[in-house]
């Protein structure tokens, strides 16, 4: 199973939904980076992704985007193969 990293905040409903979807697809562990607890990580996230919103999800080194992007990838049957790569 590929490493999943998610930039998130403690009170983000889309982060919770993204985590639920990933777990439904077999992800046992998500490396979470809480940008509300570590403001320096917000700058790192914005530099890496070019985006300001959370969640920002990486599968391996591939930037997936936010929850809507993750959900669209799943609906297109691309999420599980990417997780298993």
From TrEMBL:
Pfam families: Glutaredoxin
GO molecular function terms listed in the Swiss-Prot or TrEMBL record: glutathione disulfide oxidoreductase activity
One GO CC term on file: cytoplasm
CDD domains: GRX_GRXb_1_3_like
The keyword Cytoplasm belongs to this UniProt entry's keyword annotation: yes
Domain Glutaredoxin, residue spans: 4-64
Similarity comment: Belongs to the glutaredoxin family.
Protein name: Glutaredoxin
